[in-house]
Design goal:
The chain is α+β, with helices and mostly antiparallel strands and 201 residues long. The protein has helices at residues 65-75, 82-91, 94-102, 106-109, 117-127, 139-142, 153-165, 170-181, 188-199; strands at residues 4-12, 16-21, 24-29, 43-53, 56-62. The termini are far apart.
Length: 201
């Protein structure tokens, strides 16, 4: 119904952003919405998918068209709902996901929250041969916005170790990992503080 929406970013939360288009605020659920914080009051474009079920009407948005296509393909997999699909899109690139599917890499697929071995095999069964074109897509083409905001791997790993040492479980940390990876924090300490704020909510 909506191919894309372009408007002024008026708010970004942990789950969605709001775009103002001619005085109408569109609530758009998207992967790693906090990465758009630095775009506040700027005009941005989101490729959108309107999800409609009997008791649910939600608008999902993506920085790149390929991310939207991945989300749609995941919704066609038995056992994958929009929440799981969005989580997967937020934690991988279409290139890496396609490679995992084509190589039948269960270990890579089961790292996503809510994806067990059975669901991983179902994803491979349903999607193998349908996403191989993305293996030719470079990371720069698909995740350009993320390079501006994602903390380096070393800093992220240090933050995770610090949170584990404070007594939080890996499962709890995995749930906030997308937000931490999308953070604009400039130091490990700042990243840990953000992690604690998220975990205490």
């Amino acid at each position: 119904m909506y191919a894309y929406i372009q408007g002024e970013l008026t708010a970004s939360t942990e789950e969605y952003i709001i775009l103002d288009v001619a005085g109408i605020g569109y609530e758009i659920w998207c992967p790693n919405p906090l990465r758009y914080q630095t775009k506040q009051n700027e005009t941005i474009k989101m490729f959108t998918y309107f999800y409609v079920r009997e008791d649910t009407h939600m608008l999902y948005g993506f920085h790149q068209h390929e991310e939207k296509d991945l989300f749609k393909k995941l919704l066609n997999v038995s056992g994958i709902g929009p929440k799981n699909a969005l989580s997967i899109v937020s934690q991988t690139s279409v290139h890496d996901f396609a490679q995992a599917i084509e190589q039948e890499n269960d270990a890579y697929l089961t790292k996503f929250p809510g994806v067990g071995k059975k669901t991983a095999r179902q994803m491979i069964l349903d999607l193998k041969g349908k996403v191989d074109q993305w293996m030719q897509t470079s990371h720069d083409d698909v995740l350009s916005i993320e390079h501006d905001f994602t903390p380096n791997h070393h800093m992220f790993d240090e933050a995770v170790e610090a949170l584990l040492a404070l007594g939080y479980t890996k499962r709890e940390i995995d749930q906030i990992a997308p937000n931490l990876k999308a953070s604009s924090a400039e130091s490990t300490d700042d990243l840990v503080k953000q992690g604690l704020q998220l975990l205490m909510r």
